[in-house]
Amino acid sequence: MRKGVIMRAKLKFAIGILTLGTIIASCSSTKNLKEGESLYVKGNVIIDSDTISKENKEKLATYLQSALMPKPNKRLAGVPFKLYFNNMAGDSANKNMIKRFFKKIGEEPVLLSDVNREYNENLLRNRMENIGFFNAEVKSDTLVEEKKATVNYTAKPNIIYKIQSVKFNVDSNSQLGRDIRSSSDKSLLQVGKHYSLDVVLNERDRIDNDLKNKGYYYFSPDYILVEVDSSHRNNRVDMYVTVKKETPPQAKVPSKINKIYIFPNYTETSSGYQRSTRNAELFDSSYYFIDRRNTFRKPVIAKHIFFHPGDTYNRTAHNQTISHLVNLNSWKFVKNNFVDSKEIPNALDVYYYLTPLPKKSLRVELLGKMASVYNGTEVNVNWTLRNAFKGAEQLSFNVFGGYETQTGGNADLNSSYYRYGMEATLTFPRILSPFGSINPSRRFIPKTYVKGRYEFLNRRKAYTLNSIALDYGYIWQESEEKQHDLALLEITYVQPKGISENYQRQMDTIPALRHAIDPQFTIGPNYNFTFQNTMKQHLKNTFYFKGNLDLSGNILGLIKGADFNKGKTFKLFDAYFSQYIKLSGDGRHYMKLSENSQLASRVSLGLSYSYGNSRSLPYLKQYYVGGPNSIRAFGARAIGPGTVAPEKLSNGLFYADQTGDIKLEMNTEYRSKLAGFVHWAAFIDAGNVWLQREDVNKPGAKFSKNFLNELAVGGGAGLRFDFTFLIIRTDFSIPFRIPYLPKGERWVFKDIDFGSSQWRKDNLMFNLAIGYPF
Q: Which spans in 106-214 are helix H?
């Protein structure tokens, strides 16, 4: 970062601190309190137990403390900021616009007199009883200092009760009783486990869900009664699962599916959802369609209805149908009703009301990009046509353009450019195959896609590139955690033009620059596999993995007998086609350390083998490291390959476009919440890229057994502003290890000098980005 930018940032920070300090100094959280009033600042729970571990005491205290009422005034970094705004407004808020604003965003003081200690004591006892501490005791006292009050609650859990027996007292002569008993071996109520009200409630839900899948549409968890006998003196309970006597007869018998009505082009009226079936057309002897305009092809919708007339009602089929209809991305609202049939007893008629999304839509996106040495912007205009061929297909055209300009630094990033282009995508909600209908999973909708893309890139002082890409493939989800993306055919064609005289001279000096503008032609399949369980927030450890297998030119190379070692290389469309096998993996681990902190780690590995018609990967397929989402102490593409130093140019700048055939990157980051939406992180990044083969122009670039000694290492810290819908990230980082320095001098801790402006200019890297790096 340039010195001027740092100085301005320091000045703004100092002004902000001074302003905040002035406001706080001039305010007092208790200045408007009347005589005898105290501000309630905290409710504190202390666990009094010799049998509970320290860790479990903390968890229990946190659990109980969350129940205390009322909540103290909201705080940011320990400051009750909303209360300060209220105090600044005073009692004359109606006479002043600014004070009215402060009053509006402020918060009235929460007083000690608002706290009902007896109510909270009973609340805490009840919470402990809910988790098995039936003989819990709670006492409280109050501490007041300088009009600020803290209420301490001492909770003595005593001995927790465990389950001694579980009995299902249901009528085994009725179908309902037999169906409940049939799944009793899956009961969540386990002998020897601690009593818990949450487990009892979950057991009722489990029984209900099991019955729903056996046809009991009208059954409810509320019809299950779990009686608890805690009269034993051995701190044990007996549990009895029964069906309430007041359960209605309709809920005790399974329901069948009778008629199925589908409204594919439904518009809700003021009178609600209508059930008129006039003009209904029977399809496949199963489904009645009410769609006079034939807006959707009937077989497409019928394929995603998992009920048939005569079926027993099933919650899984119910949910799968709704999920499929929603994920067809053709309807704004998907609503269904189950209504008692007037023709058959214990039967249901099903109505599906599908309100279409607009046939056409236009979306415009404007993006801004900023880092320490470059700025730019990009615009995307996307036009979408839904239900293109009446089968829930989606056709989209995206026109894009943008520019980026270098604003500082000592690297020639070649980032002063402008680009524009267009992409067209046609998506089918099914697998299109010459072998007939293929559906890898009933739960999820597979998709077939056809993509075409053209892009023009003009690096104004260097060269221009025209690129064309064509893709045909499938995406399908195996489960909630696993997804597959198979591009059966992926073609990329890149042709350079307009090479400047200056860039031509640089190529003569630095042959590596020629690789960036080589004509490129890749053709072959591409497969991606993704696994993630990060959506399961209750887990302490979650994972994300994405693997990629990319093949190009292998069949062509065999047919042609290509061998670059023998000088037998071939062109297609005036470009040497690439022949390689490329394997990549990106694995991430997230460990929850507490409610507001976690440790996030990533390992990214890339391997490739070029042969036949290619000596190395084409430029667009090569790996690189560095930048705001990689090794943040170094610029993008400014590391490697191996121990190769960035190429110096005649004007004193260096050329930062270092790429390789092999990649290793490791990152770890501690993330924690500061206050409100403000979070912070400390991180360490390491990695490099290498070449598959020796290159006389890049000594030290080939991958070898000494690769660990050639890693670049950097670290730093930054703030994250989490607005839920948007995360803004700022990172400051410095290099710890520079791989292109001489052996024995690569660790640079001894050179760190924050007081030196020249050192900061050469080493301190600032990144402003959207979202987390991984």
A: 117-130, 175-181, 197-212
498: tokens are 């307009």
What local confidence, expressed as pLDDT, does residue 492 receive?
95
- Whole-Å CA distances, 548 to 322, 404, 526: 32, 30, 7
Find all residues with CB under 8 Å of 273, minimum gap 6, and list them: 335, 337, 351, 353
Choose among 351, 380, 373: nearest CA to 262: 351
Joined together, the tokens standing for residue 350 give: 């099903």
Cβ atoms of 322 and 350 within 8 Å: the answer is: no
pLDDT digits (tens, 9 = 90+) for 12-48: 443 444 444 445 444 567 777 888 889 999 999 999 9
CATH for 256-356 is 3.10.20.310
255 token code pair: 């329901």
Closest C-alpha to 685, from 729, 765, 639, 630: 630
What's the first-to-final CA gap in the chain, in angstroms? 24
Of the candidates 714, 695, 723, the residue with the CA atom closest to the CA atom of residue 638: 714
| Spatial CB neighbours of 211, under 8 Å, sequence gap ≥ 6 | 176, 179, 180, 219
Asked if 587 and 615 touch (Cβ cutoff 8 Å), the reply is: no
DSSP 214: T
Stretch(es) of the chain classified as CATH 3.10.20.310: 162-251, 256-356
- Of 658, 639, 655, 638, residue with least CA distance to 647: 655
Distance of alpha carbon 70 from alpha carbon 605, whole angstroms: 52
- Output the pLDDT for position 33: 81
- The reported pLDDT for the residue numbered 636 is 84
* CA-closest candidate to residue 468, choices 416, 510, 519, 538: 519
Q: What is the pTM (predicted TM-score) of this model?
A: 0.80
Report the DSSP beta bridge partners of residue 288: 261, 282
Nearby residues of 673 by Cβ (< 8 Å), 6 or more positions away? 596, 597, 679
Q: What is the pLDDT of residues 498-508, one digit of tens each?
A: 888 888 887 77
Taking the C-alpha atoms of residue 348 and residue 341, their distance in angstroms, rounded to an integer, is 5
For domain 162-251, the CATH class is alpha beta
Pairwise CA distance, residues 258 & 342, whole Å: 10
The whole-number pLDDT of residue 20 equals: 47
Residues of the chain with pLDDT under 50: 1-22, 24-26, 413, 652
